[in-house]
C-alpha cells in the first residue's frame, strides 16, 4: 500500500475520533480571555501524540514593543499559547500547522437552536460556536498528525503544530509564536475556506473619522451645518477611493470579485436630539488591504483622500475631518500561485478528491499575515468549514469535510516534509 | 400725564425690581419635574399683586385622554400649573399672558462661565439657564402687571396670567389650562423673539425611521446591503420632500426664509462593528409643520413619501422602511397679519420704540399652538431674549430689553383690555 492508501484507510477507520475531540473543544467556550480550558484539551491530545510541547503565556516586552502588536488586551494569565513539534529526522522542509483556539462571542443564545456551546451532532454536522471557525480545522490538523504518527511514517522536516489565542482580535498569539522563534518553510492555516486554497488574503485596518458640523435649532436648520450631511459627502468620497483602488488591481484571482478590497462603512453615529442640527458625526469602518500592498501604503491612500477633502472643501478647510486608526489590524498575505507549497497541497487535494481545488483570494485577514509578513513564511489558507456560518448563530461544520481536510493535510505534510527513505521502502514494501 | 407716560416713568423708576425677581427665578433650577420651587416664587409675586390665584397639579383624565396630549410624563405631583387673574370691570376684551416656568437641562456645567443657575448680573445682562427662555419674558409680564396695578389703572377686560409647566416637552401645561376653561380674546407669549412679533409659529413633530439592510462581512461587503447606504437614499428623498413642501408655501412672512418649514435629520445610528455591513439604521428627525396646514396633513405628506419609496424601491419592497411618530409635538400657530391684536401690540411698540416692530414667523412651536388650535385664542408671540442663546451655555437676557418688553406689554394690556372710562378721565386729568 502506498502512503496515500494507508492514510486514506486509517482515516476511514479512525477519523470519527475527531468528532469527540471537536465536541469537547466546542463545549469549552474559549471566548477571548477564556481560552485556557480549550487549550488544555489540545495540550492533552498533543501529549498523547508524543509531541514536544511548548506552552507559554504571551505578553513579554518583545511582543508588546513590536511595531505590529495591535492589541488592547493586557492580561494573558491562564490562557497560554501552545506549540507542539513533531521533530523530523533532518534534511526536509518544515511546516507550520496553525489554528486559533479563540472564538467570537456567541451572540444572542435565543438565535441558536441548541445551546451555543452544545457540540450537538446532527445530520453529519457538529454544531456550536467555533465549530467552523476554527476548532474543526484544528481537529483536521490533529487528525492528520495522529494519522502520520499512528502509521509510523517518519518525516525529514519538522511539523510545528500551533494552537494560538487572539486571532479574532488581531493575531497577537501568532505574532508571539513568530517572535518566540517558530519559523518554517511553509505553513497551512485551516481557516474555513470551504476546501478552497487561499494563497492571497485580504488584510484590514479599522478607521474612525470625526466629522464636525455646526449646531442649530432644527426649525432654522439652515443656520447650522449638519454633520450628517457632511458625513454623507465623506462616505461618497470614500466610495470613489474604493473604486479607484479596486480598478487598479489586476491579480488573476481578483478578476471575478466585484470588490476585491472593499472599504466598509460599518458604523455611523451622529446627533443626540431630533430637533437639533447635529454638530458631530463619527464614522467607523474597515479598510481592506490588498495582498499586493503594504499596510502603510493602504493607510497613506486613505489619509491622502481625507487630506485632499480637507484641502478642497470649504467647510473642511475650517473644520478638518479627523482620522484615527484604531483597534485590531490584520496584515494581508500573498503567495505565488505556483509556489511549491501550492503545488504540494494541490497534488494532495487531487489525490483525495480526484479534481483540482478551487483557488481564491480570501476576503479577510488571517494569522497568515503575521507568518508571511513578519516571519517570512509561505502560507496557504485551506480548511473545512465555510465563512457563511462563522460568527453566526447555529455555526456548524460538516464532519465529512473535516476528515477529508485531515487527509489532504496529512498527504501535504508527507509531501512537504518528505518521508524518510528507509521508511518509504519499509512501509511501501508491506 | 397719559397712561403711556406714566407707565414709562413707573418702569424707569421701578423696572430694576425685575432683575431681583429674575435672579431668584433663575436660581431655582426648574428643569422638568423640578418646577415647584420656581412656581412658588411666581405664586408669591402674584399674591403680592393681589391677583386671584388658581394653583393645581395637572394630569386629570380630561388631559390624559385628550387627542393632543403628547406627553410621556406621568408624575406631576408637587410641580403645579399656576393661573393668576386680574379681574376686569367687564365690557372689555380679555388677554392671556402665558409664560412657561420649565427650562431645558443646563448641559455640561464646564461650558458655562458661571454656575448655570447663578443668576449673575454682568454688563446689563442676567445670566443663567432659563434667563432668556423664558423666565425673562415672564418677568416682563409680571412687571407689566405690577406697573398697571401700581398706577391704579383699572381695566375692563380680564388679564389672565399663566405660568405653566411642560412647554419644553410639548405643552401639556398650557393644554391643561385650556381644558380647565381659561379662554380669552387674545394671548401674548413672551418667548425670546428678540422684540419681533411672531403671528405665525412653525409646528413640529418627531419621526423615527427604521431602515433595514442585510448583514455581511466587510471583506465581502457586496454580499450584504448596507443600511447606511440605504439611509443615505432615504435622507435624499426627505430633502426632496422638504424642497417640495417649502416651494409650495407662499405666505408673505416666508418670502425671505431659506427653508420656512425644514425637515431636520437630527440623529442617525447604524452599525455596531467596523468589519460588518450594518443591517439596520435608525434615523430621527423633526418635521416642521406650516402654520397653514394641520398636523395631520403634515404627517400624511411624510408617510406618503415613505410609502412611495417603499413601493418603488426594489429593496424596500422586500424590507419596507418603518415610520413612527414619537415624543412631543408642537402645534403650529397662525394669526392674520392685520388682526386687531397685532395692531394693538404694534401700536404699543411704536409708542415705546418710535418705529414699527419687525414681524416674522417663528421657526419653532410654542404653547401658542394649544391656545390657538385647541382654545381658539388669537396668539402673538413677542418677547425679549434671543433664540441664539436659548438652550445654550451662558444663556442670558438683556435687562433693558426685558423692561422695554414690559412697557410694550403694559401698553398692550391697557390698549386691548381697555382702561375704564372714569379711570381714563381721572388719571388723564392729573
UniProtKB/TrEMBL annotation, chains A, B:
Protein keywords: Cobalt, Hydrolase, Metal-binding, Zinc
Q: Which Gene3D superfamilies does this UniProt record tie to the protein?
A: 3.30.70.360, Zn peptidases
Pinpoint the Peptidase M20 dimerisation domain residues: 201-313
Pfam families given for it? M20_dimer (PF07687), Peptidase_M20 (PF01546)
State a single Gene Ontology molecular function.
metal ion binding
User: Is Ligase among the key words of this record?
Assistant: no
Cited InterPro entries: ArgE/DapE (IPR010182), Bact_exopeptidase_dim_dom (IPR036264), Peptidase_M20 (IPR002933), Peptidase_M20_dimer (IPR011650), Peptidase_M20A (IPR050072)
Keyword flag Nucleotide-binding: no
Top-rank taxon: Bacteria
What this protein needs as a cofactor is: Co(2+); Zn(2+)
The record lists the membrane-crossing segments as none
Q: Which family does it belong to?
A: Belongs to the peptidase M20A family.
Name the chain's protein. Answer: Peptidase
Q: What is the lineage of its organism?
A: Bacteria, Bacillati, Bacillota, Bacilli, Bacillales
